[in-house]
Design a protein that fits this description.
Length: 294
């Protein structure tokens, strides 16, 4: 057994009932070295002094999730993959994952990573029974966030998210009624909200910059798109096929690098708010012409 503060780099490390491949640095007394101990003198730089695992973690069952939780590991320098048989993806110690967090095509009903502040990417897709995604302190994601085709999803909580380095996509979640990230300020790729049948409102009230496209299409009952702080879009703005849409607030947008397309939103009774727009780099196709600034 490894003692407190031990530095171990092993081919396999047993954490109670779960076996995780590759290396680890963790302050814990209950680690069992199964051989191949080569040793290293410091934890991964990405994890600082936190108890850390080096490599990809695959949690195949709820027992694996419970064992990983009991290990006290706070940082994974790699990916974390939840298997299809996991029902409750609940971790309260994990604060950082440098790679991708992936939960796909499984039986999961709830995802609650209550201490997670940073992730490389997040991929939550095709989980038919998933009801809630709770990430209460998640601050930043280096690459993409994709939340799609989770038919029963009704809760998506991102209250602390300030930035996404890649795309932010929320697509095909049939029961989701509200999308809000109240403090997200920048998206380095595309912002896409597509085909969410019950979605009534999209609100990113302090979002200032989207380097890629802004796309909101085929959300059947969407009433409002509120992006009142958005000043710059590097790509195109496409808002189309939202049959109930009545309010499009883009009043702070000064420049759009690509096209501006706002069409086929059947109930849009008022023109989009574009009072600050100075330039559109591509085509302009708007059903109800806005009052552009002089």
């Amino acid at each position: 057994p490894a003692g407190d503060g031990a530095d171990v780099d092993v081919d396999h490390l047993a954490l109670q009932d779960v076996t995780i491949e590759r290396g680890v640095f963790v302050d814990a007394a209950d680690l069992i070295d199964l051989g191949g101990n080569r040793g290293f003198g410091a934890p991964p730089p990405a994890c600082g002094d936190a108890p850390a695992f080096v490599g990809d973690v695959v949690l195949a069952t709820d027992d694996d999730v419970a064992a990983f939780e009991a290990s006290g590991i706070e940082c994974v320098d790699g990916d974390v993959v939840f298997g299809r048989d996991v029902v409750d993806a609940v971790l309260t110690h994990l604060t950082r994952v440098t790679g991708r967090i992936s939960i796909r095509d499984g039986l999961v009903q709830q995802i609650a990573l209550t201490a997670l502040t940073d992730a490389g990417a997040i991929d939550i897709a095709g989980n038919a029974g998933l009801v809630g995604v709770v990430l209460p302190v998640l601050d930043s994601v280096t690459d993409d966030v994709f939340i799609g085709d989770n038919d029963a999803l009704v809760e998506l909580s991102l209250p602390a998210l300030t930035g996404v380095g890649g795309d932010l996509e929320i697509n095909g979640n049939d029961a989701l009624e509200d999308v809000s990230a109240p403090v997200v300020a920048s998206v380095g790729g595309d912002l896409v909200v597509d085909g969410n049948d019950a979605l009534a409102a999209v609100s990113f009230t302090v979002l200032a910059i989207v380097d890629g496209d802004v796309v909101a299409i085929d959300n059947d009952v969407l009433l409002a798109i509120l992006l009142e702080a958005l000043a710059e879009v590097g790509g195109s703005v496409v808002i189309s096929g939202n049959d109930a849409l009545a309010d499009v607030d883009l009043d702070a947008v000064a420049s759009i690098g690509g096209d501006l397309i706002i069409t086929d939103n059947d109930e849009a009774a008022t023109s989009p708010q574009l009072g600050s727009l100075q330039s559109v780099g591509g085509d302009l196709d708007v059903d109800v012409a806005p009052d552009f600034p002089d």
